[in-house]
Amino acid sequence: RGGAERSGAERCLSALQVMAQILKDMGITEYEPRVINQMLEFAYRYVTTILEDAKIYSSHAKKSGVDADDVRLAIQCRTDQSFTSPPPRDFLLDIARQKNQTPLPLIKPYSGPRLPPDRYCLTAPNYRLKSLQKKVSSSAGRITVPRLSVGAVSSRPSTPTLGTPSAQTVSVSTKVGTPVSLTGQRFTVQIPSSQAAVKSATPTTPTVQNVLINPSLIGPKNILITTNMVSSQNTTNESNPLKRKHEDDDDYDNL
Amino acid sequence: VVVEDQPDVSAVLSAYNQQGDPTLYEEYYSGLKHFIECSLDCHRAELSQLFYPLFVHMYLELVYNQHESEAKSFFERFHGDQECYYQDDLRVLSSLTKKEHMKGNETMLDFRTSKFVLRISRDSYQLLKRHLQEKQNNQIWNIVQEHLYIDIFDGMPRSKQQIDAMVGSLAGEAKREANKAKVFFGLLKEPEFDVPLDDEDEEGENEEGKPKKKKPKKDSVGSKSKKQDPNAPPQNRIPLPELKDSDKLDKVMNMKEAARRVRLGPECLPSICFYTFLNAYQGLTAVDITDDSSMIVGGFADSTVRVWSVTPKKLRSVKTAADLSLIDKESDDVLERIMDEKTASELKILYGHSGPVYGTSFSPDRNYLLSCSEDGTVRLWSLQTFTCLVGYKGHNYPVWDTQFSPYGYYFVSGGHDRVARLWATDHYQPLRIFAGHLADVTCTRFHPNSNYIATGSADRTIRLWDVLNGNCVRIFTGHKGPIHSLAFSPNGRFLATGATDGRVLLWDIGHGLMVGELKGHTDTIYALRFSRDGEILASGSMDNTVRLWDAVKAFEDLETDDFTTATGHINLPENSQDLLLGTYMTKSTPVVHLHFTRRNLLLAAGAYSSQ
User: Fold this and answer.
1) Which contacts (CB < 8 Å, 24+ apart) does range A35-44 have?
2) Same domain for B528 and B392?
3) pLDDT tens across B547-563, in order?
4) Chain segment B48-69, per-residue pLDDT in tens
5) Is A179 close to B105, i.e. CB distance below 8 A?
6) What GO annotations for molecular function exist for this entry (chain B) (predicted)?
7) What's the predicted TM-score (pTM) here?
8) What ipTM is given for this predicted complex?
9) Partners of residue A99 in chain B, C-beta under 8 Å
10) Which of B172, B193, B228 is the last residue of a domain?
11) Residue at which a domain ends, from B129, B156, B172
């Protein structure tokens, strides 16, 4: 057919026609015109990937050229990765038989909202506010807790408001059970200026527990990295909100 | 007497020595074709059922054993002989020319390894057997035994019309023994409690604790008879959640509304109120309405779920923890006070899915919403905080439909992995897996007594599953395309199904038979709903119409005695025109959802499509 003599544009056109014919053969009659372009792109990428893989396999097997077996192997490997299909029937029948043997669990009455254990729910908070830093015992330089707004630190334990521009020591503590609550976790946000330590003004300051600041962990940007749960100091106290045991993740670098 | 069952061959290569020489397949097939075409008229329709399964099985054998050229010429020669309703399958087959093509297609692999069921009268079968057991036809007799299961019944051979009504599924028809198990299709007894009824109770209804007890007008709710319905399941057959106070209040409201319900019938058709989703560029893919018609939810192709309030009352979410700490917990209206007025709105949008949302379902107590999506998860949302509570992962492939049980707590989902799963809201893994369909499960519905689940599939069958032990108790065949809508009648005895073939089929669950065929729609039926007392069946379709059918007439005078049920089919009257009570056209809005309010007003929903 003298394909080599045809111009690139002609080749392109015939590829479009072939793709349109394929869509027609598969019974797809209504589609946006860009679908053909997308399908062609996909076909080109797929074939290129397969051929590249096949080249790798054939050179691994120290063959002189790529043959059909290499291509077949390449296709098989790619299929297992990207184009997975649902499990086969006998497997499904098997697991169905196992599952269906166990009797239906009894339902405990009056147990509130029936949800799976917290681990499997999406009700936990998916963020943690930066923990409040009390005294940094060592005099190893100043620790500036960056961002948020700067202002005089006032440790008035007033109405908890998050993210207000006024520099307040704010804290949020919640109870377990309310649907929107961040279940039981306590944390504080401090917006100090340059002081590293904050005086606590409330008389009912619970002692800081479990604070482990390893000065060596203080990085070049003066970000505190804590490794334990820090209980807040200046909390407005709802008495003994339940605390959830967590490992502290690294604080995010938000500079 | 049943055809001797050959032991099921494993999914691995079946030795084709048993099945003769592949180069001669064309001869075998045309020999059989000649025999059938020359047989007596009364037998020809029944024997013609062999063409399609034999054609497909023989073709797949050739492809699987890599006889590509024989497969191609076999296909060319005989694919035009097949019935028109198999066209979609044939198109898929035409693209399967190599063994590797079959590997990813689970449906075709399942088809190859399962036996296609044919139902033939004894006389026709004798004729066929005699012919095939002649020495020269031994090979095709082997093939028939390998791939077909012939269920013989005693009775008159069926006419082409009768056969056409019931065939069409990928697995053939249903063996009679598949539909013999006892099904408890009756309803569970409603709990009895005092109903402070007041006849003129528009405003002044809240005189709680009225000593006078007026009997509810209808006796289907709170029946006075203490006898157990033999067809109803025992109350504790499956564990069900207890009735909370809020549920009891809801039931009282329900009964009051029921008393004001319009009695529908051929003389009194329901009014239809259509909710059109305008400018739904996001692509509306699923709709649900609460039982008391107060909220409507739409699932969209942009993976959002949007909830609207249908009544003037806005949607409110619970206050934040901060504000909750301020309210007076002892006050009488604490349940009102916990709601946040500042963010009340008519519309709430729920984000979370990462793919189009194909199914939505409100819980009966209106506290939860379920949505299932192409991302393979089913999500549970709280309607008090409008946040997502749980994501149930199990199907790793698109989930096409989900529904809460009529009593809450349980829900069912069905998807591309060909199974339906039963879940409980407090278990992160499914409780039951219903496996058996050959293709995607496209539609899942609970029976009103919550003991059974109906699943419609792309393999064109409907199966009824027992929640207690996961067994398939009924298989219904007859549709010629994937099933997209299912509806149980309120009395639990009948099932209506709609598919892409535009027909609504009616099934008697107890006897396991097709009892009606409603023709009229010209496109896929996506919505089916019975009126509250089962007098009218409403169907909504892609052809932009809503049709109303007379359900009372469709189900009366059925000839379901022992004799007819023994054969597995009854004579279907050609009464679609008589049963059609009305056709209502929308401008160009396909109907996606139908819902009868408690007073029998019909609500319909769809997205306006401008073409």
Assistant:
1) A40/A15, A40/A16, A43/A19
2) yes
3) 999 999 999 877 666 66
4) 999 999 999 999 989 988 899 9
5) no
6) RNA polymerase II general transcription initiation factor activity; translation initiation factor activity
7) 0.79
8) 0.84
9) 430-433, 470
10) B172
11) B172
